[in-house]
Amino acid sequence: MFYRQQFDTVLGFVTRRTDSVHLAADLTADIFLTALEQADSYDARRGAPVAWLYGISRNVLASHFRGSVRELHAVARIAGRRMLDDQDVSAIEARIDAAREARGLAARHAALSEPLRAVLDLVAVDGLTVPEAAHALGISAATARVRLHRARKVLRTAAPQISAATTGSVATTASVNALLEVAP
Predict the structure, then answer these.
(1) 82: part of which helix (H) or strand (E)?
(2) How many CB atoms lie within 10 A of CB 176?
(3) How far apart are CA 144 and CA 151, in angstroms?
(4) Which of 44, 52, 53, 166 suits 125 as a labelling partner, its CA being 20 to 30 A distant?
(5) Which CATH number applies to 2-78?
(6) To which H or E segment does residue 41 belong?
(7) Dihedrals φ, ψ of 128, to 5°?
(8) 150 pLDDT more than 60
């Protein structure tokens, strides 16, 4: 009965404040639901039921428009920014994995003894041949080959355990092995 008596009043109140038919219908329904939920808080000494209903209507509309403003601000903050798609996420994950593996390889490299690291750096990083690296270090070519072999062996044996534990990726282990095979 109350709903039927006040429906046009509430709908008129709402339609004067919004330009969407669907929004007006939704807000009117929300107002009556709120009134139903708060029926026990109605105090006849404070005024007519329609005044109480107008108070609820103002609060429901204010709440809706505050939410709309927050939504508009959120949309404005992300406007012009592209959201990440699956390819972007995959690319970022690959970069994170590569950086993790690079840190692991750097740690394993730092753990090598200085003679092994020196030969490895000259051959793998600086691009010298084994005889050129041997000459730069003042050692024989055979000694340089042995040190290079030992350095690669140490890095290879550590690589699968670290890669599997940190990235779970066989591809990462393959990339470390490829790096170790840079020079003969």
Answers:
(1) none
(2) 21
(3) 10
(4) 166
(5) 1.10.1740.10
(6) none
(7) -80, 155
(8) yes
Spatial distance between the Cα atoms of 27 and 62, rounded to a whole number of angstroms? 11
Here the tokens at position 164 are 């599997």
Show me where the domains of the chain are located. 2-78, 86-180
CB atoms within 10 A of CB 100: 16
* Residues near 117 by beta carbon (within 8 Å), at least 6 away in sequence: 109, 110, 151
Residue 162 pLDDT > 50: no
Interatomic CA distance for residues 51 and 47, integer angstroms: 6
Q: What is the residue whose two structure tokens read 């509309």?
A: 61
CA 123 to CA 40: how far, in whole Å? 85
86-180 carries CATH number 3.40.50.1950: no
Q: How far apart are CA 177 and CA 141, in angstroms?
A: 23
Tell me the pLDDT tens digit for each residue of 45-62.
Answer: 888 888 888 899 999 999
Nearest to 106 by CA among 120, 95, 92: 120
- Give every CB contact of residue 179 below 8 A, 6+ residues apart in sequence: 105, 124
Distance CA 169, CA 172 (A): 5
The alpha-carbon radius of gyration of the chain (Å, integer) is 36
Task: Please give the mean pLDDT across all residues of the chain.
Answer: 82
| Total length of the chain | 184
Q: Which of 96, 12, 27 is nearest to 62 (CA)?
A: 27
